[in-house]
Amino acid sequence: MRRFAVPVAVLSGALVLTGCGSGDTKAQLSVSSAYMPQPVSDMAAGFLDIANKGGTKDELTSVTSDLGPVSVHETVGQAMEEVTSLDVPAHGQLVFKSGGNHLMFDKLKHTLKQGDNVTVKLHFAKSGPLTVEMPVKSATYNPTTGH
Questions:
Q1: What's the average model confidence in pLDDT over 3-26?
Q2: Cα–Cα dist 105/5, whole Å
């Protein structure tokens, strides 16, 4: 019985290592903490977290919505600028928060109020698109996640 213990342990370890490496090479994206503060004009901001549990980075390349044009903005220091993409790092996350990176909705097609939901589609360089329901919260909403 003892002579089988070492080969079984070695084989088990090899299978565990194989499992870690092979399934870990693609981006594995998910979205959480999505919301939009209730807009006071025909423009609005959107916030969310994109997590990547995979071993390869991806890039958010665009966002679309039936509400109208959506652009991706990056905030560096005090300056906000539109960008064509943002990295979603391997084993990391891309955070959109008040005062930081955010989505800008321009020329909203209709008025939104607290309790409504906004559907957005996130497009990536390598992964397929993700459809996200973004609830409209009060204009002063301050989530516990730190956004």
A1: 47
A2: 61
